[in-house]
Design goal:
CATH superfamily of the largest domain: Medium-chain alcohol dehydrogenases, catalytic domain
Pfam family, one: ADH_zinc_N
Bound molecules: NADP nicotinamide-adenine-dinucleotide phosphate
Low-confidence stretches: 305-338
InterPro entries: ADH-like_C, ADH-like_N, ER, GroES-like_sf, NAD(P)-bd_dom_sf, Zinc-ADH_QOR/CCCR
Oligomer: single chain
Number of helices: 10
Radius of gyration: 20 Å
CATH architecture of the largest domain: Alpha-Beta Complex
Protein name: NADP-dependent oxidoreductase
Number of strands: 16
Number of domains: 2
Largest sheet: 7 strands, mixed
Order of helices and strands: EEEHEEEEEHHEHEHEHEHEHEHEHE
CATH topology of the largest domain: Quinone Oxidoreductase, Chain A, domain 1
Strand content: 15-25%
Organism: Actinomadura rubrisoli
Distance between the termini: 11 Å
Keywords: NADP
CATH class of the largest domain: Alpha Beta
Length: about 350
C-alpha cells in the first residue's frame, strides 16, 4: 500500500510502499479515504516526542482518519465490515498511521461510526481537534455569562472550542486575522481580536476592562501565557494545549492553570457525532491535498500554521521550527480565503 512515512526521526516524510497490515484479535482493518492533518504529525516526524513515544520505522504519519471497515480480527463485535468509521488511529509502536491506504484500529479504542451525512474528508478533520476541544471546554467549566478568550481560534482545536464554548452560553472572544473574523462569528464568537495587529491584551481589555473569566490557548509559549493570564479575573481558568502553563504560578495569583492533555475515546467521538448530527458542531476545511502532497502540507503547517505569505507571527508565540522543505502549496493559495483544517485524500 502507499503511505507517507519517515525512515527515522528528522527524516523528510516521503511517499513509500509498505505492506498492508493484518488485523489481530480485537482489531479492525480500516481502508482509509481521508486523513486529517494535525500539528502533532510533524512534531512526531521531527522527533519532538521521541522520549515519550514508542515508535518503529518506517513510521507512517497521521493520527486522524476516516474510512471503511474492510476486515476484522477475532473477537470484534462493535463494528462490522463495510461500516463508515472515523477516529484517532495512530499506532506508532507498529509504525502505523493514517497517511496510508490502510491502517489498524483497536475496536475498544478511539474509533466510532461516522456522523450521519458527513463525507469522509470532513469526518477525518474532526477526531483529535474535536475530542480535545470537547474535553477541554468541559474541564474549563465554561458556563453561561462567562467571557472566554480562545487563542488560536482559527485552527482545528480552536474552531471546535469556539463553537463548544459558545453553545454553553459563554461570550466567546476569538483570535482571528481579518479575513477569518466573519467565519469565527458564524461559528459562534461574539467578538474577534486580530492577533497579527498589535497587543492582544490591549485589544481584549479595550472592550473588557474588568477582565475575562477563562482562556483556552492553543498557541502561546510560557511568556505569552503569563501575559495573557493578567487579563483573568480572580478565580479564572487558563487552559493550554501547548504545555505553556505554570500551574503553581497561576495558583499563586488565585487562578486555575491547566496544561490540557486530551485522552481520545470512542465515547468522545460518539458525543462529537451527536453534536455534528444535531448541527451544533461544524468543521471548516481549508484545503484538501492528495496523499503525495502530504509532506508539503506538513511543512506548511510547521512553518507557522498558515498557508499564505502573511507577516510573521508576533514574537513570543510557539510556531515551531523553521520549515525543512519549501512551501510548495503557497502558490495555490486563495487570497483572503478561509483557513481551517487540512485534509489528505488517501
Ligand atoms: N495537548 C493536547 O492534548 C493537544 C491536542 C491537540 C492539539 N494540541 C496542540 O495544540 C496546538 C494547536 O493545534 P491545532 O490542531 O488547533 O493547530 P492548527 O490547526 O495548525 O491551528 C493553529 C492556529 O493557530 C493560529 N495562530 C498562530 N499563531 C497565532 C497567534 N500568535 N495568535 C493567535 N492565533 C495564532 C493560526 O492562525 P493564523 O494562521 O491565522 O495565525 C492557526 O489557525 C498544536 O501545538 C497542537 O500540537 C495539543
Amino acid at each position: 500500500m502507499q503511505a507517507i512515512a519517515v525512515s527515522e526521526y528528522g527524516a523528510t516524510p516521503a511517499l513509500t510502499q509498505l505492506p498492508r497490515p493484518e488485523p489481530g484479535p480485537g482489531e479492525i482493518l480500516v481502508k482509509l479515504i481521508a486523513a486529517g492533518l494535525n500539528p502533532l504529525d510533524w512534531k512526531v516526524a521531527d522527533g519532538l516526542l521521541k522520549d515519550s513515544l514508542d515508535a518503529s520505522f518506517p513510521l507512517i504519519l497521521g493520527q486522524d482518519g476516516a474510512g471503511v471497515v474492510e476486515d476484522a480480527g477475532e473477537g470484534v463485535t462493535r463494528l462490522r465490515h463495510g461500516e463508515q468509521v472515523y477516529g484517532s488511529f495512530f499506532g506508532a509502536a507498529r509504525g502505523l498511521g493514517t497517511y496510508a491506504e490502510y491502517t489498524l484500529a483497536r475496536e475498544d479504542g478511539p474509533v466510532a461510526r461516522m456522523p450521519q451525512g458527513m463525507i469522509y474528508t470532513q469526518a477525518a478533520a474532526v477526531p483529535t481537534a474535536g475530542m480535545t476541544a470537547l474535553a477541554m471546554v468541559e474541564d474549563a467549566r465554561v458556563d453561561t455569562g462567562q467571557t472566554v478568550l480562545v487563542v488560536g481560534a482559527t485552527g482545528g482545536v480552536g474552531q471546535a472550542a469556539v463553537q463548544l464554548a459558545a453553545r454553553t452560553g459563554a461570550k466567546v472572544i476569538a483570535t482571528a486575522r481579518s479575513d477569518m473574523a466573519g467565519t469565527m462569528r458564524r461559528l459562534g464568537a461574539a467578538e474577534t481580536v486580530d492577533h497579527s495587529k498589535g497587543d492582544l491584551n490591549a485589544q481584549v481589555l479595550a472592550a473588557h476592562s474588568d477582565g475575562i473569566d477563562a482562556v483556552l490557548d492553543m498557541v502561546s509559549d510560557t511568556a505569552a501565557t503569563e501575559a495573557v493570564a493578567q487579563m483573568l479575573r480572580p478565580g479564572g481558568t487558563y487552559m493550554s494545549t501547548t504545555w505553556s502553563v505554570n500551574p503553581d504560578s497561576m495558583a499563586a495569583k488565585g487562578l486555575r492553570g491547566v496544561n490540557f492533555e486530551g485522552e481520545p475515546s470512542a465515547d468522545l467521538l460518539d458525543r462529537l457525532s451527536d453534536l455534528i448530527d444535531a448541527g451544533e458542531l461544524r468543521v471548516v476545511i481549508e484545503r484538501e491535498v492528495p496523499l503525495r502532497d502530504a509532506p508539503d502540507a506538513l511543512a506548511a503547517n510547521r512553518a507557522g500554521f498558515r498557508w499564505r505569505d502573511d507577516p510573521p507571527h508576533p514574537p513570543g508565540r510557539a510556531t515551531g521550527p523553521a520549515p525543512s522543505t519549501p512551501l510548495a502549496l503557497r502558490s495555490g493559495n486563495r487570497a483572503g480565503g478561509a483557513r481551517g483544517k487540512t485534509v489528505v485524500r488517501v
